[in-house]
């Protein structure tokens, strides 16, 4: 299921689905829809993937600049 995978990726980067959505100015109601089985559009998937990739790489670099991010 999409939402479970997204939630797992967010947790791996030290954040939550809600924080991810807010950082991208995507309605948090989308997270609820995805939790209920909906799948995001391709352009939204691309935004999510890019942000998670950035956060994951920053986390792995040991950068403290991500502390307290939304």
List the helices and strands and how they pair.
Layout: H1 2-12, H2 17-23, H3 29-35, H4 42-61
What does this structure look like?
There is one protein chain. It contains four helices and no strands. The chain has helices at 2-12, 17-23, 29-35, 42-61. It is globular, with a radius of gyration of 12 Å. The model has no long low-confidence stretch (mean pLDDT 86).
Features:
64% helix, mainly alpha, 70 residues
Summarize the structure.
The protein is mainly alpha-helical and 70 residues long. It is built from four helices and no strands.
Oligomer: single chain
Ranges where pLDDT stays below 50 over 5 or more residues in a row are none
Helix content: 55-70%
Distance between the termini: 25 Å
Helical stretch tally: 4
Mean pLDDT: 86
Order of helices and strands: HHHH
As a percent range, the share of strand residues is under 5%
Q: Can you tell me the overall shape?
A: globular
* Rg result: 12 Å
Main sheet overview: none
Q: What is the count of β-strands? A: 0
Structural class category: mainly alpha
